[in-house]
Design brief:
Elements (H helix, E strand, L loop, with lengths): L1 E2 L6 H16 L6 E4 L3 H18 L7 E7 L7 H10 L2 E5 L11 H9 L5 H11 L3 E3 L5 H8 L8 H6 L18
Parallel strand pairs: 1-2, 2-3, 3-4, 4-5
Amino acid sequence: YLIHAPYGGKQARCGTWLALLEAQQAGLIRSIGVSNYGVHHLNELESYIAELEAHNGKGKGGEISVGQWELHPWLARPDIVEWCRKRGVVVQAYCPIVRGQRFEEPVLKGLVEKYKGKTAAQVLLRWSLQKGFVPLPKSVTLSRIEENADIFDFQLADEEMKLLETGEYAPCSWDPTTSDD
């Protein structure tokens, strides 16, 4: 289970974590994590987990197993990704194909041309996998679902991965990571 967003303030975030932790300890759920948390929210939760462990014993505060964020070359979130990697948190990428809004980008078009038979969506999903993310493409169209899965027969070169490092901050969805709530 994931806490979908950090909205509601510290008390709500901590209370939600505690409720999920209790459900996990009761055997009702396996893993708990967060979605759309900024580094400041992650640090806050990590401190709360430490408080719970100090009070209840080692390992009794829970573990952030997974985190989910909008991630793609135009929103790579290196600070959040680094935070998660240091702690072994699985990083899931939603909107990994940027809702198709960037398929005409020159760098992406060049890679599509190089990898004949591959689409812009496939290149972006490959980028996501090579970054170590678990991409979560969304589609209800069977042909696109099949196409999205056909990304294991090619690999982007290191220099191509670097070409896709835009350094941009361009969400195509909402961005609660910046919330000070």
